Amino acid sequence: MSSTTFSGPVTSTAGFITGTGVNSTVTASTLTVTASAYNGQTINLSRAAGITVTLPAATGSNAVYRFEVATSVTSNSYKIQVANSTDVMNGFSSVAGTTGTVFSTLPASDTITMNGSTTGGLIGSYVQVTDLATGYYLVQGSLVGSGTPATPFSAAV
Q: What are the chain's domains?
């Protein structure tokens, strides 16, 4: 696929494609996300011992990051967190366990934790995070867990 650079107004009648169109598989214990490397990607979380993901500071770039659980977490947790103490997450996620429950973020939510049971983290769980505005991420997810569902959202940063 080629790349073209324009210097001036550009009009598209069918929209623009952003992001890299590439999927990534993460097996390290931490991942620091950057828009230039991960915008538009599906990031497969593939470490049974958990991964801590740190998002870039929210600037309103409309960058989209989709996280999918490819390996169920069995110890520690999968955590997706903001970069600083001023960014927050707004949105919701369903958590399926012995029942299904939808949880919304609270005003100070800045971290999503999937513990492999009550807050999701089993294969098939996913979270999509969009850099909506300065200081704000939009979150949508569907998490697969076990037991009585609990909120995956907290203020931990």
A: 24-154 (2.60.120.640)
